[in-house]
Amino acid sequence: MKRKILVLLAICLFAVPAVAQQADSITVTPNELAERIIQEAKKHLGKPYRWAANGPSAFDCSGFTKYVYKQFGYNIPRTANHQGEQLRPVLGDMTSLQKGDLILFGNHWNNRTIGHVGIFIELTEDGRDFLFIHSAHGGVQISHLSEQYYLERFKGAVRVIPDFIDMEMPSGEPMKADAYNGLCAPQLDTLKLGENDRRIIMFGDGKWAYVEADGSVVTPDQSDRIVLGSDGSWFILRGSGVRIPSIIESNEAAHAYEAGVTSGTSTDSGPVYYTVKSGDSLGKIATKYHTTVSALCRLNNMKATDVLKIGRRLRVK
Predict the structure, then answer these.
(1) Are 30 and 240 within 8 A, CB to CB?
(2) 168-206 core/surface letters (b: 16 or more CB in 10 A; e: else)
(3) Which DSSP state fits 54?
């Protein structure tokens, strides 16, 4: 009898983690997941670079990308070279990039091999440059592709999460969706109906419904989207969901570090200024205030090559 009780107790104990793991997860769209990835990456701004470091107190470049993605249940390769070789390549120009893609750069001693990696954040307004977050000499920071060092070594990008599907359709425009990395748009104003197809009604606000055989109109779940092929045929494309661990903010050391980096900065919406001290550089100041060298230069009407004078008052936000 005692043995049976012990066996049952053991079964109960081993069952608890599985239940907890099941409950401690959520399903999000790829777009929402990408936003969470960038938010997680930005939590580590200013943390030091150290070769072969895997975090969370210090990182090298690929240790940083691997750590960030691991928080969302993705076990990507450890090195920049393997990340570039084994993950899905992003085809097309810079407009094909989506938030969360891994940006690849050549080695500083051999540009033919991948030696550095970062995480894509967004294109600039002119579409000719983009921001990415990475761990480099100087720590975790946000940089621009247009910075000469990175522009000369840019090798492309790879994707970890599913492709985005544009869920916001401008009113009055034909509905379209990005399926299999290609836009499908209607060429005709009528649809070619197959034997099992239903007639579709498109509304001005972008919503749609279909007509049943008996003439009744049915409005489906509007999370579905219709793709119209160039031959006039159509099919329903459902937005994919991604199941990820639910991240619980429990790392007090990380919070203490972040508080130390941001202490002394203003939290209101007005301008924030910093007085240059001995040993400062634009890179160090940019890292401290979670911004970029380019942004500092624009705010202060200066160049990245300008000499910083001790006592100079710089606007940082």
Answers:
(1) yes
(2) ebeeeeebbbbeeeeebebeeeebeeeeeeeebeeeeeb
(3) B
Convert the pLDDT of each residue in 286-304 to its tens digit: 888 877 787 788 778 787 7
Could you read off the pLDDT of 127-154 as tens digits, one per residue? 899 999 999 998 999 999 999 999 999 9
Query: What domains does the chain contain, in order, with CATH numbers?
Result: 26-159 (3.90.1720.10), 177-239 (no CATH), 272-317 (3.10.350.10)
Concatenating the DSSP letter of every residue in 78-102 gives SSHHHHHHHSEEPPSSGGG--TTPE
For residue 199, the model assigns a pLDDT of 72
Structure tokens at 45: 């701004």
- What are the CB-based long-range contacts (under 8 Å, 24+) for 186-193? 186/228, 186/230, 186/232, 187/230, 187/231, 187/232, 188/232, 190/232, 191/228, 191/232, 191/233, 191/234, 192/231, 192/232, 192/233
pLDDT digits (tens, 9 = 90+) for 177-222: 333 333 333 333 445 556 666 677 777 666 777 777 677 777 766 6
